[in-house]
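Homework help board

Subject: predicted structure for assignment chain

Our instructor gave us this sequence and asked us to write out the predicted structure in C-alpha cell form, then describe one feature. I got the C-alpha cells but I'm not sure how to describe them. Can anyone check?
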Amino acid sequence: MEQALHRSSRASGIRLVTESMPGARSVAVGAWIGVGSRFETPEESGVSHFLEHMLFKGTPTRSPQRIAEEFDGLGGEVNAATGKDYTVVYARVLDDLVGDAFEIVSDMLQRPAMAELEQEREVVLEEIAMYEDDPQDKVHDLATQALFPGQAMGRPVIGFGEVVGSVTADEVRRYHASHYTSPNVVVAAAGHVDHETLGELCDRHLGELAQAPSAGAIEPAVAGGPRLLVEEKPTEQYHLSLSGPGLSRSDDRRHAMQVLDVILGGAMSSRLFQEVREKRGLAYSVGSYTVGYADTGQLGVYVGTRGDNLGQVCEIVRTELLRLGSERVSPAELRRAKDHLKGRLVLGLESPGNRMNRIGRAVLGDTELLSVDEIVERIEAVGADDLQGIAEEHWDPAGLSGAAIGTSSRTIADAAGRLSTDLADAVSSVGSSSRA
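My C-alpha cell output:
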C-alpha cells in the first residue's frame, strides 16, 4: 500500500512535496505558510487568523464572489486553517483541474486585496463571540494558557476581540509581506498528482512572493507550575481540561506517547472512557489527547459533567494517571492500543486530504517524513516499559495545570483538590476576555 513520496526545492525557495496515490481521481493541494499565533506579539494576537480570512476576500483581479464561483465551477472544495505555527490554504479538485485550482489559490495567497476588511472584521468578531459562548471549545484554550502563562503559545489562535476590532488594513498588509515569503512556504499535494507538473505550476504562479526569509520567529515555550484557571459562567455542565507538557513532534518517544494516549482516553476501550462513562455514567464526553510542536508538546484530559459528579470524576482521573506510572500495561491492552492506532492511521491516509496534511506539516516543521510502513514499525516497537516511563514523567497528576468553566468556582476548587492539592491551591479566576 506504500505510495510514492517526492520532495524538491524550487529556485524561488519554495519547498514542494507530493505523494502519488495510484487509482485516485482527485488531488488535494495546499500552500502551507510558516506563521501562526506563536509568531504574534500580544498586540498582534489574532492577526494570523484574520489574515487567513482576508485571503478569501478578493484580489486585484478577482472579487470574493468570483473566487467562490470559480471554485464552485470546478466542483471542488477550498478552505483554510490557522494553527499555532502554520497557516494553510488548500483545495481538493479532480485531477485534470488541479492547474486551475492552483492558479486561484496562488492569486489569493500573493495578492490579497484587503478590500472588504470591515465586513470580514465583523465576521471574525462574530466567530470570537461564538467561541466565547462554547465552553467545550474555550476550556482547551484556557488550559493551554494555564500551562504556558504569559506566552504566545498560551494565547488562542483565534485572537482577542480588542485586537481584531482595531487592526488596520496596512498592519495586515505588513504582516502578510513579512511572513508570506517563498522560503516560508511549502506546497504539498496528494492524490493523482505529478511532482514535476506541480513544480512547474509553482514556478509559474507563485513568482510574486518575496524571496527574503520570514521576519518572524517563535517564542520558546516554557511550561509553568500547576495552575487552574476558572471561569464562572452559567452552564448545564462543568467543563474541565487538564494539561501538561508533552513531547515535541521530533521526539523519538512520540509514538509511545500516542499508544499511551489510546490506552488512557483515546478510544472506546480506553481506561477513562470505560471507568467514567461506561461503568459509572458520570459523563457523556471524556477523553485524552496529545499534540507535538517544534520545541515542546502538550497532553491533556477533558471531561464535561454535572457539578455533582465533578469530584468523583477527578478522583477517577487521578487513580488512572497514577496507575499508568505504577503498573505495567498488560500485553493484551498494549496489543489492542497498537492495533487501534495503526488502523486509525491507515484508514485516515486513504484520504488525499489527510495525506496532504501529513506531508505538508512534516516538511513545514522540518520533521522526518516517515512512510506509513515506517510509522507502523515504530508503533510496533513500543514496549510496556516505554509507556510506564513516559507516564511517570508526563502524566503525574501533581504536575498538571488546567482550566474549568462552570457555575461555581468553589465546586471546581473542591473537585480539583481530589485530583491534586497543588492544583487546588493554584486556582485563579478569569474574565470573559480570557487574558488573565
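Reply (TA_rk): Your C-alpha cells look well-formed. For the description, you could write something like this. The two ends are 49 Å apart (CA to CA). That's the kind of observation they're looking for.
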